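Collaborator request, handled under Task 6.
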Amino acid sequence: MRALDYARLATSSLGAAPVRSCLTMLGIVIGVAAMTSMAAIGAGARSKVTEQIRSFGANVIMVNSSSDSRGRLASGGHQPLSISDSEAIAELSAVRLAAPAVAGPARLVHGALNWGTTVNGTTLDHFEIRRWRLESGRFFTEEEEKSAGQVVVLGNLVAHKLFGEEEDPLGSVVRIGNVPLEVIGVLAEKGTTGSESQDDVAFIPLSTAKERLIGSTTGDRNAVGYILASADSGADMDIATEEIDELMRQRHRVMRDEDKGFTVATAASIVAAQEASTRTVATLLAAVACVSLMVGGIGIMNIMLVSVTERTREIGLRLAIGATPRDIRTQFVIEAVVLCTGGGAVGVALGDAVAMTVAHFAGWPVVLDPATAVGAVLFSGLVGIVFGYYPAKRAASLDPVAALRGD
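C-alpha cells returned to the collaborator:
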C-alpha cells in the first residue's frame, strides 16, 4: 500500500469522529503554541538586547550615584561623584574617554509649544562615547563649555515636539524656566532602550547646567550626577570596569561594599537586566510546552487505544482479506502522526498570534522564524510516532478470527 493510501485511510478514520479528533489534538496545540511563542519572544529579546547595546554607544561604562541613575546625590553622607573623578577615570590605561554629567527633568518652551524632557549637562566627549550623530547643526564647542554658553542640542523627539516637521529648529531659541538657549543642533534618531526613548533628551554644556540650571542648587560646583566612560575596546570592558571600580573605591575611601556611594555598570548589563522579565516568561512557556506535549502525547495514545477497541471488527476484516500486520501498524501510526502534525500546524499559528499579541501589549519584540515553525511541526509528528506506536502494535497483533467475532 502506498503512503498516499495510508494517509487517505488515516484522514478518513479521523474524520469519522471530528470532535474527538479535535479534542485529542488540543494538548499538542497548546504545547506547540507555547513552544513557538517562547522561541519568537526569546529570539526577539536577544535581538533587541544586541540592538540596544549597539545603539547605546561604544563600550560604554556608567558610574552612577547609588541613590539613582540620573543626578541626585547619594544619601547617607556618601561623597558625591565629581568632575575630578571623571578626570581621574579618563587617565586609566583601559579607558579611552570619560564625560561627567548632571541631569534632571525640565520643560522646554518654544512659542506656544512646550515639552517636558530630560536635560543633560555634559561635555563633548559624551557624544563620542554614546556615538551620537547629528541630523543637522553642530555640537557645542570647547569655548561654549568653558564660558557656560547658552546653547542646546535637541534630541530628535524633542525637536519634532517643539518645531514639528516644517520649521527648522536651528538658530531658534527655546527656554528652560527663564534661561533662553539657542538651538545649535538636532541629533539623529536613536530609538528606544527598554521602554525609554533615547531621543527624548536635550544636551547643554556642563558649565551651563551647573551655573544656570540643574546644578545651581546643589551647592557643590565640582559635583556631578553620573559619569560616562568608554573602554579602549570590547575586550577591555572587564578590565576597564575593574579599574574604574578600584579607582573610585580609593578616591571615595570605601572599605566595605555596603559603604559604596556609587555603582559601576556596563551598558550590556543594564539593557540585559531590562530584558530579564522577557526571558523569565520564555522559560515558563518552555515548561508549559514540555508538559503540554507530554500530556498531549499520552492523550493521543489513550484515544488510539480506545480506537483499536472500537474498530476490532474492521481490523479483523482487513486482516482476513489480505492486509498484513505491518499494514495495520502503519495505518494506526500514520493516524497518530496526522493528529499530531495537524495539532502542530494549528499550534504554530496560535503561538505566532500569542507572540504578536504579547509584542503589541507588552512592548516586547518577537522574531517569527519559519525554521522554528517547521521544526515544531516535525517535532509534533515525532510525538505522534512515539505515542502512537504502542496502540498501532496492539492493533497489528490482534488475531483475525477473534477480531471478527469482536472478542
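The cover message to the collaborator said: "Residues 67-260 form one domain. The longest helix spans residues 18-56. Please let us know whether this matches your experimental observations."
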